[in-house]
Amino acid sequence: MLxxxxxxxxxGLIALATSFSQSVDWLSTIGVREALIRRHTLTRSLYDxxxxxxxxxxxxxxxxxxxxxxxxxxxxDDARLFxxxxxxxxxxxxxxxxxIGTVDFRxxxxxxxEFWMAVIPRIGAIVVSMTLAFVLRNFWALxxxxxxxxxxRLAMSYLMHPYRPGLTLRDWRGxxxxxxxxxxxxxxxxxxxxxxxxxxxxxxxxxxxxxxAVGVEVGSLTSSELxxxxxxxxxxxxxxxxxxxxxxxxxxFKAIAATFLVTMPMGLGLSMLAAPxxxxxxxxxxxxxxxxxxxxxxxxxxxxxxxVSTALLTAEGMMRQHFRVMVTSLVxxxxxxxxxxxxxxxxxxxxxxxxxxxxEEILYMIVTFRHFRxxxxxxxxxxxxxxxxxxxxxCVLMLQGLAWTAAPDTAAEQALAMLQGTLxxxxxxxxxxxLAWYAAGRPAGAETAFLDVFMSQVRRIARRSxxxx
Length: 469
Prior knowledge:
With about 475 residues, the chain is mostly helical. It has 20 helices and no strands. Helix 9 runs parallel beside helix 16 (about 320-345).
């Protein structure tokens, strides 16, 4: 709904502002939460030191954004960026003051609480943004949503955890070693992820930034809404396994199998149905973003190894290796952007991003498999059943004329194409996956885990129905 009420230029303007503010914020990322999660035991002094470090970082970064707001507006030749950045400086400060006690959610593998802390502020942001969009019809609707999410998340962090932090730097040495390499890695990742937005904004303008931002956001839904939260859970799980001395190789391949089993149909389906989805949800003005959604959806599906490897390397404290991969990916993207964006415009930026992702994926595989002496032959064994099911799903939808085709003209036809493609794809993928699993002798793996979860839910529903009757 927001994209129907606002223009690509509005989204592009906010993308430029948030890219800058997030860049400043990420440049100061010191990995306090990750350092605390990795500790075997925590004291009140460690909690309070972590909170104090985050608070100091927030104050300094908010001041930095305030100081640079006007020069940034001048660099992009758009005075509207100045007041936007003033608000985003406040958002940075609010985020830094969140209750450090919520780090226990990951340490204790209480992912349900972390899920609600992420979802409820997002729902609040959507409601506020849509309300303001109807009233204002400009970019301030998006800023209102961002500010709402920050306020709600801050409040929920204190409502959902009883810990009340104090101020001290007594145990800063216990956090500093891990935090330094976390900061170095975050800096490299920041430069890699934000340079395309900055280059597009400088060379092509806010409209193309808006198209690119929506293309990346929609195409990366599989990564942002599924894989990234799973990575947070995997980091906590790998950390727990490290404490207990569990088998790293077995856990690594199980994590890849379970993640890929879900990302394969979601990413592939999103790519195949991008045209009717964009036209139905966003409107005709955004149809130029369809090729971007199609490409980024496929890449989001394929980034499983990099995400799982990142969680494992971080849990093992191998931040130097993590940093080197990020730097190499950064250099690759910078070179590709310089070569491709001039002759190919926004699609050049897309292919530069994809190229750097491929480089990163290969490097993570090399580092992880070498260090932990993982058998490379186990990777195709892990992925062949979801890959086969995904290929069958793509073939069926292509034969029915539903995959990678132009969007129908009417909203009803677009909705019908989405519904038909989703149902057909889900049935095909699930059927072929289960047949391949049975043919392989029903080995213990991702399919077993998902079937166990499914059957437990069925039994729970049956018990409730029986008790009511």
